[in-house]
Design goal:
Number of helices: 13
Radius of gyration: 24 Å
Strand content: under 5%
CATH superfamily of the domain at 2-187: ABC transporter involved in vitamin B12 uptake, BtuC
CATH topology of the domain at 2-187: ABC transporter involved in vitamin B12 uptake, BtuC
Structural class: mainly alpha
Number of strands: 0
CATH architecture of the domain at 2-187: Orthogonal Bundle
Order of helices and strands: HHHHHHHHHHHHH
Length: 293
């Protein structure tokens, strides 16, 4: 349980930290596609008797780079190529898992939907190292990543290496999928990258505040979902995602009152400023030169 809580904490921080850039770039489903490809790495890890987390990370990184190149250069046939990559990754993972001597349906299910009881010490070490890389990129390059997420053309004009940064975002998303698959599962990891960000956007207006609120939401739902899964014996991935959706519904309900309150503040400020102007500087006492100024 201690290993599971640590893994859940790291997932709650890293998934929204990367997901906010995917949402801004309208690539919310990219995590789902990477999860399909990462399953091939899991099956390959069992087949070669190595750590499935590290093998999944390598295959997911390669798949994410291929996705970014297809997105950048594949014009009319790009969607077909991506579909083949996604479904091929899922089919390859299932096939390799069945060919391995240690793989089983139970192993496959734990990676697809998450499992608290199967988080080992080696998994925790791998998750900590991969999460450290994700945080180093998302925090250290936050200004550059924000620029390419908002407007790639403007970022290119300012001299930023847009292509390299796009590839870095794809690689970071792949690493995040690998970090989250032991807790949330490969099929549900995309929800944890998107839903906390979408929830935060309902009640925030700036990118920085959205980042903080989405990370806080991710940590809250992953820890709460992990504890609930342990005591109620329910699937951890499904519990975490349902809690994230519940937070999104709550924030959506709070969005309308907050918007009305924000709209009243500028109106009240404008009214008070006008009143002060009328009292302090009456029109009959203003110098004649004021009109020219």
């Amino acid at each position: 349980m201690q290993r599971a809580l640590l893994a859940a904490l790291l997932v709650g921080v890293t998934a929204p930290a990367v997901g906010i850039h995917l949402v801004q770039r309208r690539q919310a489903l990219m995590g789902d596609g990477i999860g399909h490809v990462a399953l091939t790495g899991v099956g390959l890890g069992f087949l070669l008797a190595t750590n499935p987390v590290w093998m999944a990370a390598l295959v997911a990184v390669a798949g994410s780079v291929a996705m970014e190149l297809i997105r950048a250069y594949g014009r009319t046939r790009g969607d077909i190529a991506l579909a083949m990559l996604f479904y091929g990754g899922m089919a390859g993972g299932v096939m390799l898992m069945n060919l391995s001597a240690t793989g089983s349906n139970a192993n496959l299910t734990s990676y697809l939907f998450g499992s608290l009881s199967t988080v080992s010490d080696d998994d925790v070490v791998a998750i900590c190292l991969l999460a450290g890389f994700v945080l180093l990129v998302t925090v250290g390059l936050r200004r550059q990543l924000f620029a390419i997420s908002q407007d790639e053309e403007f970022a290119r004009v300012t001299g930023l290496p847009v292509r390299a940064l796009n590839l870095l975002v794809a690689v970071t998303a792949a690493v995040t999928v690998t970090v989250a698959m032991r807790v949330v599962g490969l099929l549900l990891v995309s929800a944890l990258m998107v839903v906390p960000v979408a929830a935060a956007q309902q009640v925030t207006r700036s990118f920085a505040v959205t980042f903080v609120v989405s990370v806080a939401t991710g940590v809250a739902v992953t820890l709460a979902g992990t504890v609930t899964s342990y005591y109620r014996d329910v699937p951890p991935g499904a519990t975490i995602v349902l809690l994230a959706i519940a937070v999104f519904v709550l924030f959506t309900a709070l969005a309308a009152p907050l918007a009305r309150r924000r709209s009243k503040v500028p109106a009240a400020a404008a009214g008070s400023a006008g009143a002060e102007c009328d009292v302090d500087v009456p029109a009959t006492r203003r110098p004649a030169g004021d009109a020219a100024v």
